[in-house]
Amino acid sequence: MSYLNNQFDIIIVGAGHAGCEAALACAKLGTKVLLCTLNVDNIALQPCNPAVGGPAKSTLVREIDALGGVMGEVTDATYLQLKILNSSKGPAVRALRAQSDKAEYTRYMRNLIESNENIYLKQCCITELKVENDKIVGAVDEFGIEYKANAVVLTTGTSLEGRIFVGLRSYSAGRLGEKAAIGLSDSLNKLGIQTKKLKTGTPARVDKRTIDYSKMTIQPGDEELSFFSFKPDRPIRKTYPCYLTRTTEETHAIIKANLDKSPMYQGLIHGVGPRYCPSIEDKIVRFASNPSHHIFIEPEGLGTYETYIQGFSTSLPADVQVKMIRSLPGLEKAHIVKPAYAVEYDYVPAVQTTHALMSKKIKGLFFGGQINGTSGYEEAAAQGLIAGINAFNYVNGSEMLELSRSSSYTGTLIDDLVTKDIQDPYRMLTSRSEYRLLLRQDNADERLTPIGHKIGLIDDMQYERFNEKQRLIKEEKERLETVKITADEATNEILAKYNEHIDRGMRASELLKRPNITYKVLKELDDSTQNRNLSKEVFEQVEVIVKYDGYIKRQEEQVQQAGKLEKFKIPENIDYSQIEHISSETKEKLAKIQPKTLAQAARIGGVKPADISILMVMLDKNTIARK
Fold this sequence. Notes:
Layout: E1 10-13, H1 17-28, E2 33-37, E3 51-53, H2 57-67, H3 71-78, E4 79-85, E5 95-100, H4 102-114, E6 119-123, E7 126-132, E8 135-141, E9 146-148, E10 151-154, E11 163-166, E12 169-172, H5 184-190, E13 196-202, E14 205-207, E15 217-219, E16 242-246, H6 249-257, H7 280-286, E17 294-299, E18 306-310, H8 318-325, E19 336-338, E20 341-347, E21 365-367, H9 377-395, H10 409-419, H11 444-455, H12 460-480, E22 484-485, H13 489-496, E23 506-507, H14 508-512, H15 519-525, H16 527-530, H17 536-547, H18 549-566, H19 584-593, H20 598-602, H21 609-621
Parallel strand pairs: 1-2, 1-10, 2-6, 10-21
Antiparallel strand pairs: 3-5, 4-5, 7-8, 8-9, 11-12, 11-20, 13-20, 14-18, 14-19, 15-16, 16-17, 17-18, 22-23
Helix pairs in contact: 1-9, 2-9, 2-11, 3-4, 6-8, 11-12, 12-17
């Protein structure tokens, strides 16, 4: 490995989940990457809960894997527990969640980074961006060393001007024990890029040897394991349980008595916190009628006694935290290893970027992860992967990868960020997608693996395995339409176990549409199905396709209808101020967002259907004024 004059193709600033995905994608595609991080020992650190997946987030991880990213692979290699959530509900909301070994996760990712000869890892703080003629040409670190590059990807997480709060005390830091990234915000502001502040937080960690688990409810993982990565040969590891306890009246009383010591309630923190992951004091205040809240006790790893108190994020003083934690059943004698804290940090509202996650002002400058206003490892990794791919595309003069809302949760996430003014940390939810029945975790490979292969991140061998899986799914679906299930006594005896009965013979595909009938039930009823040697991934997807066929077709029609507005492209440099018959507010929003299509314009908050109709007519007649 060697380089001359600090010249690289791409610089990645930050080595969290977004930065690692960006760096590995660029490196796999053949570019020389400088990966800068504040601490090389904290690569892909999980500073909050060491867990991956959950509702909507599991789909993001599967999409990352289908495109050629690594989060799924790393999670599968380092899990402590795997569990399918919402297993009794419909496929659109089923979700895989893994409790990870925090230290193993970091080691595994660091090995991927260091074993790639195209990645140059460096511990430093980037403080300035170098720009010429509105194009990135490099960056400068805290020591004044300049690095040249044709593209820069910023994935700074919570480090950008980060400030930690424990009670009314605060100090400069992006995470506990790690310094903040100082100076880069000023550089961005001087380039005309706006920054704002957000807030997040994390619970205390306690020594598991001081926990009485007998007072808690055990929460085991699944016996039959599911995995995130579509790659074969996943490691089978021993799994470990989590535990459930609850807040008490004493917990609530302690918190209420100490709200005057909360930096949030005293106005010391100005950034907005995550709506869907509030602090425990927020829960107590906002949901005052709720006498108790679930608290999950989760291991951080096999090589540590540190234990995570999920649902107990707080920024109250350290001495108050001791009283709060010891008021929880099973934690009466708990020893706190690390205190909970809140962190306020700078982010760059993503309305200043394109769907390729490139700055609208500075060519070659990309953003990914929490710097775009999101919350969560999975959201960060998905953005980092797209930002990395597009940084490579920019450097090589290739077409940008812009995923649509109908193709993926990743596309939905990015479209929401660049189209809507996000006011609090954005978290991916199934409800954010209007096409969630089409965008399931089980079919992420079907939707995105061809794209990953075309880009060059999915190799030919993996692509052949993918095509074989799709062939088996299609073949089995067609076969079930020919299999006849007879309405005899033996059949109904089996069906009775599942509260079902048939009075006439029917096709297996027709019977599978019933709510209580699964593919495994068909195996009991039909020898030919029993003898089919299909993987779990194949027959589960066949079941979803057959059972929800009508709903899926209806959503596909919705996609086609929405596609009509997507076809109306809006030219660049439109002078929205000259458009008559639409409100000043709409003009301002259109000028700020600069939508590329009528469909995107229609998703901007406050833009009315009547405004879209006017724009459609003007685009059709080509009568819109340009700047």
